[in-house]
Amino acid sequence: MQEQLSDRINRLETSATLAMAAKARELKVEGKNIIGLSLGEPDFNTPDFIKDAAIQAINDNYNSYTPVDGYVDLKEAVIRKFKRDNRLSYDKSQVVVSTGAKQALANVAMVCLNPGDEVILPCPYWVSYNDIVKIAEGVPVEVPTTIETDFKMTPQQLEAAITPKTKMLWYSSPCNPSGMLYSKEELRALADVLKKHPQIIVVSDEIYEHINFVGDHVSMAEFEDMYDRTVTVNGVSKAFAMTGWRIGYIGAPSYIARACTKIQGQFTSGANCIAQRATIAALDAPVSKISFMIDTFKERRKLILDLLNEVPGFKCNAPQGAFYVFPDVSELFGKSYNGTTINDATDLSMYLLEVAEVATVTGAAFGDPNCLRLSYAASETEIKQAIKQIKAALS
């Protein structure tokens, strides 16, 4: 019975991306040929050299509980990765391995936030940020951006959002869902604002760092004056096609890392032993080992943008990373067909699922009700057919 459940769970929203994927599966069972552009999951197999490391771990009889914060040699691999790719120096006391980057984010929220603490979320943001903050009894403070600024928060917007209650700033770069990427100059401008507010902790979600089409990836923690107040979150799900392996990690000030280990010890303990051994192989590999996936995503980005630019009512910018497009579709609001009126992006997403038989995700789930998120982690054939069906449904 609903009244037997906690207020906490009753206030919580269901993940929109997972809900749309579930709805699409239901329709497939009913016989509909749904094309899925809703989930952020690479359509590649995990590379063989990573699978070989997992098989070796099984043969080496890795089957026991793992250290709460991760195997020491995995933490050392994380440290090498941060140094090589991000010019960041961490020691083992600053690294925590978790069951996916989502758990890493939840850990950080639970150990840093008190009731009423405010967390600045530039919109659009990854779908779970808002509710993770709420579970930790924090208050999300949404800062809207637009397609005209490539969905990037300006220093002026950041300054205006800060109050005496502000405790944290969370963002992803490259961004899910917009694909935008903060440059070094843009991050430095935000850091200059944060310098005046030393109580604010930054959470930099960099899970898409290698899926980058414009050049060098920059971490907020690279700035000397931000290093001691930044939590860098990453994992192997996206760039290594390891979504189901569930390994994420953080580099953080040691006091935050210790706290995350403490809470993880009560919730889940250490991450899967075989997945951890495989992750060592992934992190120690040169990026060239996965460049074929990145090159493919870049080709698909061009394909889907070319096709969407021919769809009336879709206004697109060119994402700089990740594998999503986030078109502004507000021009279609108010239009009707067969008794169905499109009032917002949520209506449009459901219309496209039912009429075009294409699964997308409403931008409202990411804090921007004017947009849709479409994933191009799908084959070229699926992308072409999906946009053809969308165009037909909107005509």
Automatic annotation (TrEMBL):
EC number(s) from the headed UniProt entry: 2.6.1.-
Cofactor: pyridoxal 5'-phosphate
Domain (Aminotransferase class I/classII large): residue spans on this chain: 33-390
A Pfam family of this chain: Aminotran_1_2
Keywords, alphabetical: Aminotransferase, Pyridoxal phosphate, Transferase
PROSITE patterns membership: AA_TRANSFER_CLASS_1 (PS00105)
GO molecular function: transaminase activity
Tagged with keyword Transferase: yes
Keyword field contains Transferase: yes
Family: Belongs to the class-I pyridoxal-phosphate-dependent aminotransferase family.
Family annotation (PANTHER family): ASPARTATE AMINOTRANSFERASE (PTHR46383)
Name of protein: Aminotransferase
